[in-house]
Amino acid sequence: MAIVAVGQICSTISMAHNLSQCRLLVQKAVAAGAKALFLPEASDYIAPTASETVSSVRPASSSPFVQGLQASAREHNLPINVGIHEPSSKHENKVINSLVWINADGQIEHRYQKLHLFDVDIPGGPTLQESNSVEKGTEILAPFPTAVGNVGLLICFDLRFPEPSISLRRQGAHIITYPSAFTAATGRAHWSALLRARAIETQSYVVAAAQVGSHNDKRTSYGHSMIVSPWGDIVAELGGEKKDEPEIAVGEIDLERMEKIRKEMPLLRRTDVYPEV
Ligand SMILES: O=C(O)CNC(=O)[C@H](CS)NC(=O)CCC(=O)C(=O)O
User: Fold this and answer.
1) The complex's ipTM?
2) Each residue of 183-206: pLDDT tens digit?
3) For a pocket test of ligand 1, which of 10, 127, 130 has the largest count of ligand atoms closer than 8 A to its C-beta?
4) How does DSSP assign the chain, residue by residue?
5) Is 156 a catalytic residue?
6) For residue 180, how far is its CA from the centre of ligand 1 (angstroms)?
7) What is the pLDDT of residues 120-155, one digit of tens each?
8) Model confidence pTM above 0.95
């Protein structure tokens, strides 16, 4: 059994501030005995406008934020999963919403690019057009082995679509991650129900690190980072308020219990009957 930590922060436009928040979380995760730390979507920065999202981007190889976290991972021998922005190689005026796995040697070993972009217009909020500044991904990254189990990467709004999580499960995932910056309004309505549903239907651990609180005068995130077991229990959960110091929550990944759940209730799909999904 291994302990994992989810970290909760309130990223702003200041990469230096966001890095210092994340480094505090690394120290807390190490002190708690965690074997991996999961950080939210867009941990490097959250900008108030699409143009500032694009103008703030740095390649990972020269981003002080990414390099700082790589140094922390190496120093503490702790793998870190973190959501960042990276330049798009296809569009000059877009970034990619990316999730990287930094291994215990501080190397970026895996990278996933967000598939589903958050374009919504709900009167009274939220109104966000992620595709104005972000280029969507085109593939699922196969789950990869880590010290805490086989990890499959997805991001935030991807949570609303069961198909990629089912695909990751079928490809051998034990843990599915949803680093997020859920809006306060949609988070209240849907966040925990969706996370529990994905855990129950994939019979996998779901680890969801979330942004919390007010990032700027336009954006507030719901928080409530959590770890959900393959049976759907909420193993650990943080609150919805931004604290003076960023917080972690920790939980055990029990792969034996997961295998028992999968064996006792096999979820055999009738794709012979519904091949279109
Ligand atoms: O803007 C950035 O830099 C970081 N990206 C985000 O915060 C993204 C896109 S705006 N947020 C979501 O996908 C929220 C989904 C959500 O809230 C829901 O599905 O209800």
Assistant:
1) 0.95
2) 999 999 999 999 999 999 999 999
3) 130
4) -EEEEEEEB---S-HHHHHHHHHHHHHHHHHTT-SEEE--TT-S---SSHHHHHHT---GGG-HHHHHHHHHHHHHT--EEEEEEEE-SS-TT-EEEEEEEE-TTS-EEEEEE--S--EEE-TTS-EEEGGGTBPPP--PPPPEEETTEEEEE--GGGGG-HHHHHHHHHTT-SEEE--B--BHHHHHHHHHHHHHHHHHHHTSEEEE-BBEEESSSS-EEE---EEE-TTS-EEEE--SS--SS-EEEEEEE-HHHHHHHHHHS-----TTT-TT-
5) yes
6) 7
7) 999 988 899 999 999 999 999 999 999 999 999 999
8) yes
